[in-house]
């Protein structure tokens, strides 16, 4: 049997000292861990690290200097945006599978230790800043040997290289924080007109967004995170809108933008969209009832309501299916230039032809030329069955009164959002044969208690119901996307989740679906008429859908 040795005073003192030392070491480690954790929680990327992250993830430089990538000894220079580092080396620098190859990790720990390339199966020495810069520019490892030919050589200037290396020093660590996301909160932004002529609209939309997010926060948020909304003033100026957007994304580091007021100038909205795409920042539900889509959809911008030509084509479907005249339907189109450019007009013509509708007259006028709508002689002597009018409420009413005065049997088609409350001033005979498209549900037509309760409890007036509905739908879409995304949330993963969203119902829009090439969620519209005697909207048809 083993017996314990006799405890001497000296051994007891030694044991106590060892125990004290162990406790001090454990305390020191705990304090060090807490200090590291605190530092990580409060870390914000420097401006240089942020630029490096942009280069790593997108291949783009925020300085506007295009980065080129070269393959092979005689290869031509191609845009680096087509070959960003993230494609092969992963969002956290962990390495990834690409085309059957296994690119190595790019974390600073991995780079600064000797290793073996999984691509060439050759051992290599540790990198330092200079040898890493040479590898990125020239495709040469620390030992002077060529890297795998699949590795592009990037033409970076000194500032861009310093930024990229600065970011590689923190990639994959807790210091590489994702904008807008913490353990307890998700930070969102909105650029709205809080001053200027549309301040009333900005106030209504801000109230709508705040109420939607407060409701989900009261239920514990999403995955234990509550939403925080930051609103910047768009004023009445496109330049101010652009600056406000950049501040929210760069300085306030919001995860995503909701229901931004879209500048009326196409160039300004395009510039914002392109900048958001470069920064992988989603914009959900820009405030517009007439989206203007580029030929190549922007990855970052998710419109909710369909554009005007799509809405108009859906209205043509309604007319063709509802009306059964003995001869083909005859239709005239009067519109402002901003609604129907040549491409949109061609789409409208083709759809009318598909539905066996004769487009007998078209006229497009400048949006800023003042009141000018009246019936041309040809439409008086040979009245069409319908006139589709996309004009101001003033012009629409003037045309309706002229049709009534001349006792012409012409029915009118138009936009409920544009005509608004002016519909109540129409001559009764013409109002009875007027059909209006609406991309959003009108309260009282399509019942959606949550939205109607929100309007009632917040005390909002019906002056901006259509855009409030889009803001409501934007908030619901964002909330649903964060649920589908899961706990690991960042701008990139949110973009991918939104792209996969299918047939999501917000209650105030037709179901929303997106994909990699589709950035307008709803393709259907509501077709409405107006009962003057009851002074209420009537649902002529619940949603007509034009296939994308």
Stretches where pLDDT falls below 50 for ≥5 residues?
Answer: 1-6, 21-42, 543-548
**Binned strand content:** 15-25%
Q: What share of residues is helical?
A: 25-40%
Question: Kindly, what is the distance between the CA atoms of the first and last residues, rounded to a whole number of angstroms?
Answer: 86 Å
Total number of beta strands: 17
Outline the biggest β-sheet. Answer: 7 strands, mixed
Structural class: alpha/beta
What is the oligomeric state here? single chain
Strand adjacency order, main sheet: 12-11-13-14-15-16-17
Query: What would you report as the Rg, rounded to the nearest angstrom?
Result: 31 Å
How does the overall form come out from the CA principal axes?
elongated
Q: Output the number of helix runs.
A: 18
Query: Mean pLDDT, nearest integer?
Result: 83
Task: Characterise the protein shown here.
Helices cover 40% and strands 16% of the residues. The protein is elongated and about 90 Å long. The chain is an alpha/beta fold. It has a seven-stranded mixed beta sheet. A five-stranded parallel beta sheet has the order 7-6-8-9-10. The protein has a three-stranded antiparallel beta sheet with strand order 2-1-5.
């Amino acid at each position: 049997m083993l017996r314990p040795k006799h405890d001497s005073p000296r051994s007891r003192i030694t044991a106590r000292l060892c125990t004290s030392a162990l406790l001090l070491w454990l305390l020191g480690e705990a304090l060090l861990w807490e200090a590291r954790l605190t530092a990580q929680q409060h870390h914000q990327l420097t401006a240089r690290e942020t630029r490096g992250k942009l280069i790593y993830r997108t291949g783009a430089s925020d300085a506007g200097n295009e980065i080129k990538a070269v393959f092979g000894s005689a290869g031509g220079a191609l845009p680096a945006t087509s070959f960003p580092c993230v494609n092969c080396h992963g969002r956290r620098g962990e390495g990834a599978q690409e085309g059957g190859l296994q690119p190595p990790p790019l974390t600073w720990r991995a780079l600064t230790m000797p290793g073996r390339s999984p691509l060439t199966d050759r051992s290599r020495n540790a990198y330092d800043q200079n040898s890493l810069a040479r590898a990125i520019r020239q495709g040469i490892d620390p030992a002077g040997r060529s890297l795998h030919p699949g590795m592009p050589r990037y033409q970076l200037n000194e500032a861009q290289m310093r930024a990229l290396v600065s970011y590689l020093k923190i990639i994959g660590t807790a210091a590489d924080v994702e904008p807008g996301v913490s353990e307890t909160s998700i930070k969102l932004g909105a650029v709205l007109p809080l001053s200027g002529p549309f301040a009333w609209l900005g106030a209504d939309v801000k109230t709508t967004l705040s109420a939607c997010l407060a409701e989900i926060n009261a239920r514990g948020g999403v995955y234990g995170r509550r939403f925080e909304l930051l609103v910047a003033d768009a004023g009445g100026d496109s330049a101010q809108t652009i600056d406000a957007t950049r501040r929210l994304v760069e300085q306030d580091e919001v995860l995503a933008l909701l229901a931004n007021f879209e500048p009326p100038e196409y160039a300004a909205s395009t510039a914002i969209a392109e900048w958001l795409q470069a920064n992988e920042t989603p914009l959900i539900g820009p405030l517009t009832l007439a989206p203007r889509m580029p030929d190549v959809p922007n990855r970052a911008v998710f419109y909710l309501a369909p554009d005007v030509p799509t809405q108009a084509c859906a209205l043509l479907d309604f007319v063709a299916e509802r009306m059964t005249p003995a001869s083909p339907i005859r239709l005239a189109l009067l519109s402002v230039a901003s609604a129907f450019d040549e491409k949109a007009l061609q789409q409208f013509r083709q759809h009318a032809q598909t539905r066996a509708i004769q487009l007998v007259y078209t006229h497009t006028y400048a949006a800023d030329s003042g009141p000018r709508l009246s019936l041309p002689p040809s439409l008086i002597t040979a009245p069409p069955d319908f006139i589709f009018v996309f004009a101001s409420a003033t012009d629409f009413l003037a045309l309706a009164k002229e049709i009534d005065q001349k006792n012409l049997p012409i029915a009118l088609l138009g936009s409920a959002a544009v005509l608004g409350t002016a519909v109540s001033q129409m001559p009764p005979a013409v109002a009875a044969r007027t059909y209006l498209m609406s991309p959003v549900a009108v309260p009282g037509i399509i019942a959606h208690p949550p939205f109607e309760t929100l309007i009632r409890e917040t005390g909002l007036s019906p002056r901006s119901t259509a855009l409030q509905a889009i803001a409501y739908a934007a908030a619901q879409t964002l909330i649903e996307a964060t649920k589908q995304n899961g706990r690991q949330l960042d701008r990139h993963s949110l973009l991918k989740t939104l792209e996969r969203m299918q047939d999501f119902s917000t209650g105030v829009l037709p179901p929303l679906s997106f994909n990699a090439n589709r950035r307008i969620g709803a393709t259907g519209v509501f077709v409405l008429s107006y009962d003057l005697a009851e002074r209420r909207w009537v649902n002529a048809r619940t949603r007509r859908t034009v296939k994308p």
